[in-house]
Task: structure prediction
Amino acid sequence: MARIIRSWRCTWTCAFSAIALLAVLVHFGGYCRGDVVTNCAFEIWYDVIGPEVHIGHVSPVHHVDEATRGVFRVPETINGKPVRKLDMRCFSGQTWLESVEVPQGINLSLRQFWGCTNLLSAFVSGSVGNAAFYNCRRLQKVTMGVGTHYIGSGAFANCINLTTVVLPEEMPHGQYNFGVNTFGNCRSLQEIIVPKGVSRIGEGAFGGCFSLRKVNLPDGVASIDRAAFHGCFELSEITFHDGLLEIGESAFGGCRSLVCVSFPSGLGKIGPLAFEGCTGLLWVLFEGDAPECGTGIFRGTGENLTVVVRQGSTGWGEDFNGRLPDKWHNRRIRYFKPKEDTYALRSEGPRKNDEE
Result:
């Protein structure tokens, strides 16, 4: 069972209060700490702030079995008070840490696990702050519970061995967005299912994820920002749903494994170079009118690209209102009748859904 080591307390008489204060300042580096909780594997230094506990530092007890030293679960309560915060330096540089579990109600702060070079797995159920797991190069699996409502910029950037990311199925609409470079350069990540409620994929959120093959975006994603999936060389399948309004500059640049893309009817803008260098792209289907387009959105896609547009839709000038590459008018354009034909994109091109 866990035991509690009492630290300096304000139970001194008035005559010795000054001496007590000096002892606390020297022993705790200027912070008036609470108790030190020692269990079979760790010492936890914490503050009691009103009705809640803030953990300031965790360190392993050196005499414990090496097999258990690297696994740590943040306690939900200490001495009957709920744990609500981890100090920014709580785990910083803790090379002993291999697995961590953070319960619901605790948010991760800036650079929470910075320098945890041996961390392999993590479970969190709160917001993930900017660069919280940045450069945890051995991290392989992350699971996020229902309490996660935000993933900050660079939260998992440069986690080059991260292969599995489990996200909650649904979050409150508009409160769960991927920040700038959230999973940037996660070279081993192969698939991501974005939860319902996400409204925006931030700039460079998945940029440089070389192995990413499949992305499922839910209804309600309104914006895919600049370079969000740039350099995802193996990306071959992505689903856009109604509600998508804008695709940013170079959002899918260099996604050379993409073959077919279908744009929903409400799409209003495609930024410059959005699909530049998608050398495998053969078929593009527009469900609605021509969106506003930047220059060179399909530059470098090859001469075999065929564009399929809805019959009766507008804005399809000879050169797409002058906003596409000069050779756009040489592309093959096909039309389908919306009331008679329902097309689905396949690797061999658009076909009616009722066709064999």
Summary: The chain has a mean pLDDT of 79. The chain has two helices and 25 strands.
